[in-house]
Design goal:
The chain is an alpha/beta fold. Helix content is 40%, strand content 20%. The strands form 5 sheets. A 6-stranded mixed sheet has the order 5-6-7-3-8-9, with helices on both faces. The chain has a 6-stranded mixed sheet with strand order 14-17-18-12-19-20, sandwiched between helices. Helix 5 links the parallel strand 6 and strand 7 (168-172). Helix 3 crosses helix 4 and helix 16 (494-500) crosses helix 20.
Length: 608
């Protein structure tokens, strides 16, 4: 007899402001499910997750949960009201004897549980919310954008924890690498309907495209049938009026069916236009050093950036990636060394804080009030790549409707704010794009379009991102900052960097995390004692136990990829698939070598 589902939604209907978000929605989550929840921004992913968590009551339908099953939910913005420290929030529902779980999660995610909530950044709060969920260990975890504002080290640790958990989980994320590594099923929200594919996110896009192609074919067939029936109604009804009323009613039903079909939302009509070409040399940094008080951001760093280069800056949060961007673009001066900018530069900046948006002004005012977009003498036109365009028409190109144009930016979601900022920087010609965390909150379709635009962009790109897949697709050079003043240059993207750099044990990676300023540090609760018999911390003991399964998984994946690449006709038949498989094989071989070395190092310490 099959086990009862962990969670079941039946005939769910939900509307906001009269517009139906869901109607007749059925959904089942089984024990052991690892599910990607995907869909366009605004499709209702977060709302559906809140219904699953029991935080939003539907207009109709039922939510069934077996007795004794617990559901944990990590929303995008957790409420820390009433808590003094991050640790207080994370440990709220735990028995004091279980507080060591918070310490374990804090060690892996890289935050201080003693940090006061009042001084904690958004990223530190998100880490505490993740630690809280993982420590509570519910049977079903619901995670809404868990990787936003996390650095790659924290994302990698979280990925490993979720890979080894026995709990079921549902993930909303824009991070392709994260979803590909973890999910075994996909839930797709599209125009109020939820479809399920019992394969991970890696199979989603092909499935989505097939579904849309079938939908287009069915719509075309319906249109042809309506045309044929309408022609019959005009030409043949007069001779057979009485006995063909049923056929007329059928025609009316066909037209009603066609009218009821919800049109797919198109992709944003984003476009990048390069201005006049810059000089061949774009930026030359020569032995630059920058420090704040006793903390060195970068020391004796030299780099030459040429026209058309795509440079990615990576490293833990707080190591100074944004500062290095500002140094290289001349926004701030180094303490020593020099930065020389090339000729004829037209710079466009996407900043991670969205500071170039006035949150209290409307979308309309944010565009028309921008000096670089203002059309003299007009209050409803903006200058878009040298041509005037009505502000509402331009906003519609970025998937905003007319009602949103007069709404304050503060009312927008994170993804919508990112799209509005893209609308501002894409309205002007540029030959140097500075993109600081552009992927946060964007849906996957918009990310795909942005990647395509950057691929065709003839100018130069400077990028800060924690999205490994995005870096791999964009970067031709990667600079890794370690928080100790070292900035190391690697050819290629994230996977290329991983293949080139020497193996780093876990404790070295942890030391790379920046130390918070003294004013932000509070006395830290005593860490759980090391296991006397092994000399390993709780996290290291846990990692040692988990590594054999991870090594076996990597070996199996390498075997499958090797078998795929052994097909001599694959390159000729499907060159893109061959390239992806080759890249994946290289990545997994490097990961396997690192995992084996890490296991050996931990095992030796455990024995010694």
């Amino acid at each position: 007899m099959p086990a009862a589902p962990l969670l079941q939604l039946t005939d769910i209907a939900l509307s906001f402001g009269g517009a139906p978000l869901f109607d007749g929605l059925d959904l089942v989550i089984q024990s052991g499910d690892r599910v990607a929840l995907v869909g366009r921004n605004g499709s209702g992913k977060s709302t559906l997750m809140k219904v699953m968590a029991g935080l939003v009551e539907p207009d109709r339908g039922t939510r069934a949960l077996p007795p004794g099953i617990s559901v944990g939910y990590m929303e995008q913005e957790s409420d820390f009201t009433g808590f003094d420290t991050l640790g207080d929030f994370a440990a709220e529902r735990l028995d004091p004897a279980e507080h060591y779980r918070i310490e374990m999660a804090a060690e892996g995610l890289g935050f201080d549980p003693a940090l006061p909530v009042a001084t904690a950044s958004g990223g530190e709060r998100r880490r505490a919310a993740l630690a809280r969920l993982l420590a509570e260990a519910p049977e079903l975890m619901l995670l809404d954008e868990p990787t936003n504002h996390l650095d790659i080290q924290a994302i990698t640790w979280l990925e490993a924890r979720l890979a080894e958990t026995r709990a079921a989980f549902v993930l909303i994320s824009h991070d392709r690498a994260f979803l590909n590594a973890l999910t075994r099923a996909t839930l797709w929200i599209d125009r109020g309907r939820v479809r399920r594919l019992d394969q991970g996110f890696g199979a989603f896009e092909d499935w989505r495209d097939r579904t849309w192609a079938e939908e287009d074919a069915a719509r075309h067939k319906l249109d042809r049938k309506i045309q044929a029936e309408a022609r019959w109604a005009v030409e043949g009804i007069s001779a057979r009026r009485r006995r063909n009323q049923g056929r007329l009613r059928a025609l009316a039903a066909l037209r009603a069916e066609r009218a009821a079909q919800i049109r797919r939302q198109g992709a944003a009509a984003m476009a990048l236009q390069s201005g006049p070409a810059s000089g061949k040399l774009v930026i030359e940094a020569e032995k630059i050093t920058k420090r704040f008080d006793d903390r060195v951001i970068v020391r004796d760093f030299s780099l030459k950036i040429l026209r058309g280069d795509r440079l990615a800056l990576v490293g833990p949060n707080g190591v100074g990636k944004t500062t290095l961007l500002r140094l290289m673009t001349g926004e701030i001066a180094p303490d020593s060394g020099s930065v020389r900018l090339g000729t004829n530069l037209e710079i466009a900046v996407f900043d991670q804080t969205r500071a170039r948006l006035d949150l209290d002004a409307s979308l309309w005012e944010n565009l028309t009030g921008d000096p670089l977009m203002r059309v003299s003498g007009s209050s409803d036109q903006v200058m878009v790549r040298g041509r005037p365009k009505h502000v509402v028409g331009y906003l519609k190109e970025f998937l905003f409707d007319e009602a949103q144009a007069r709404a304050p930016v503060r009312a927008l979601s994170g993804g919508e704010r990112a799209r509005l900022l893209l609308a501002k920087i894409m309205a002007r010609e540029s030959n140097l794009l500075v993109l600081d965390e552009p992927t946060n909150d964007l849906d996957i379709e918009t990310l795909d379009l942005l990647q395509d635009l950057l691929g065709d962009y003839p100018g130069t790109v400077l990028l800060v991102s924690h999205d490994r897949d995005f870096i791999d697709r964009i970067a031709t050079t990667t600079v890794a900052l370690d928080g100790q003043g070292r900035a190391t240059v690697y050819a290629g993207g994230w996977s290329d960097m991983q293949a080139q750099r020497p193996y780093e044990p876990a404790e070295t990676r942890e030391r790379a995390r920046p130390t918070p300023p003294a004013a932000a540090r509070a006395p830290k609760p005593a860490a759980p004692p090391r296991t006397a018999s092994t000399g390993l911390s709780y996290t290291e003991r846990h990692r040692l136990d988990a590594l054999p399964a991870e090594i076996a998984r990597l070996e199996a994946e390498i075997g499958r990829l090797t078998e795929l690449l052994s097909d001599p006709d694959l390159y000729r038949r499907e060159p893109a698939k061959f390239a992806r498989a080759s890249e994946a094989l290289t990545t997994r071989q490097a990961a396997l070598a690192a995992a084996e070395e890490e296991w050996l190092a931990l095992a030796e310490r455990a024995e010694g």
